[in-house]
Known about the structure:
Elements: H1 8-19, H2 24-31, H3 35-47, H4 61-73, H5 81-88, H6 90-98, H7 103-114, H8 120-131, E1 151-160, E2 171-179, E3 185-190, H9 195-199
Antiparallel strand pairs: 1-2, 2-3
Helix pairs in contact: 1-2, 1-3, 2-3
Amino acid sequence: MPYREVTMLEIKETLRLWLGGLGKKPIARQLGLDPKTVRRYLRVSTACGLAREQGPGALTEERLVAVLAALAASPQRSHGETWAQCQEHRAFLAAVLKQGVRLTKVRKLLRRRHKVVVPYATLHRFAVAELGFGRTRTTIPVADCEPGQELQLDTGWVGWLEPDHTGKRRRMRAWIFTAVRSRHRFVYPCFQETTATAID
């Protein structure tokens, strides 16, 4: 199942704002996050020994690494009853999908033959995660390069800044540089994706 990629900058900014006295909902609004995501970051952070009264200075590199490791190890939420129904009819789903039947038709057959009603989204997630649905292309292996030979470049939205004196909010973008071999990442926030900001 695909999950949204979480960046270190996103977590660091969440913790920095929280340690600076900002509430969960204002943090979520400012960074463009779901309040539940902010709550999860803060729950894991407090379990790692970070306390609000310690202030922004408590967010050391070591603490941040500990929080990132704990978040990576956090178990995903358990699946619901409809997922269990898909699991129960796994053999049927696998056989029908192998015949090339469209997933919308599979859902109708499941309801008609087995009297099981499963939301399409759940069925799709189950088919992708458990039955390899949609993975028809062979992955091409790419050999890692030597250290220092290749740097990958990407861009993305970072979040929103606080409103300025006119009440206008600006949205931050960032250049994201990732070393292919070490996977170390450097994030450079900016307002525009231009050649000048890339060179900067």
